[in-house]
Write a structure and sequence with these properties.
The chain is α+β, with helices and mostly antiparallel strands and 170 residues long. It has two helices and nine strands; from the N terminus they run H-H-E-E-E-E-E-E-E-E-E.
């Protein structure tokens, strides 16, 4: 083999190696920049699925709730619609992330929320976290159980129902 042909092959291998290194460097920078951009979007909450979720309240009984607003101090305000009884009196309301209704607020007879059929009422309740009153900053999510005690107009029997609340502080 002559020196020229050996030298030509050596230059060709060197050029390919240099092209490979340049290609790897370019892609490495692209991956680093993309990773930083994605991390920034997650940190800002733009790509956070919880930040995109809507506030939801689900009760599968005689009531429907909507128009949820959760304040930074943990007070949940929502609109309650009653459409089953001629008249229902709300006697207590509670909101807790725990699986118990230890933090239910009972109303006095004078303060019960009277709801004729088809009416809506705004209701506010303090929500509780695992160990104390719920609070947080804007964007904090509450995943809790909503408790409602009421008396119907038919037999004046007391009922207790519960539903799920998923609300974000706005």
């Amino acid at each position: 083999m002559s020196l020229e042909s050996a030298h030509g092959k050596s230059c060709s291998k060197h050029a390919r190696l240099q092209n490979t290194i340049e290609l790897m460097t370019t892609y490495s920078w692209a991956i680093i920049i993309t990773s930083i951009a994605l991390a920034a979007l997650f940190a800002l909450g733009i790509l956070n699925p919880q930040s995109a979720a809507a506030s939801v309240c689900i009760i599968n009984q005689a009531f429907q709730c909507s128009k949820l607003y959760l304040a930074t101090n943990g007070i949940l305000t929502f609109t309650l619609l009653q459409d089953q009884y001629q008249l229902a009196n709300i006697t207590a309301v509670g909101c807790s992330e725990n699986a118990s209704n230890n933090h239910i607020t009972a109303f006095t007879v004078a303060n019960q929320i009277e709801m004729p059929q088809g009416t809506e009422r705004n209701v506010s309740v303090q929500c509780y976290g695992p160990s104390s009153k719920f609070s947080g900053s804007v964007g904090t999510v509450l995943n809790a159980t909503l408790y409602i005690n009421y008396i119907d107009d038919v037999g004046s029997f007391p009922y207790s129902i519960s539903g799920k609340v998923y609300a974000k502080i706005t």
